């Protein structure tokens, strides 16, 4: 059994030689900008764009909508809604029952873990 690299045997070969013989390309070097090919763009769209779109639709959008509704006087049942701004939060933080509940929650969050 010969281990000659000149005859193409399984001798000491570099990764580039092995990749060239098998038809595979070398990985791009780090730090160099990558060409925007259709394959790369479709990869970005499917594996990065699609999860981002789903996150925006199902997490961020309801959060923003709830924040908007919290700044109105809408009851949830009437078609009328007026923007009152931060007035609801001012009322909430001036309520002694709510403030006691907040203290209890903070205490539980510190003690229980």
**Global outline:** elongated
| Parts with pLDDT < 50 across at least 5 consecutive residues | none
Q: Give the H and E element order.
A: HHHH
How many strand elements? Answer: 0
Structural class: mainly alpha
Q: Please, how many helices? A: 4
Q: Describe the oligomeric state of these chains in a short phrase.
A: single chain
Biggest sheet details: none
Question: Over all CA atoms, what is the radius of gyration?
Answer: 31 Å
Average pLDDT for all residues: 84
Helix percentage:
55-70%
State the end-to-end CA separation: 66 Å
Strand content: under 5%
Furnish the topology, listing elements before pairings.
Layout: H1 15-22, H2 38-70, H3 87-93, H4 96-111
Features:
113 residues, mainly alpha, elongated
Concise overview:
The chain is mainly alpha-helical and 113 residues long. The protein has helices at residues 15-22, 38-70, 87-93, 96-111. The model has no long low-confidence stretch (mean pLDDT 84).
Describe the structure.
This protein has 113 residues and is mainly α. Helix content is 57%, strand content 0%. It contains 4 helices and no strands. It has helices at 15-22, 38-70, 87-93, 96-111. The model has no long low-confidence stretch (mean pLDDT 84).
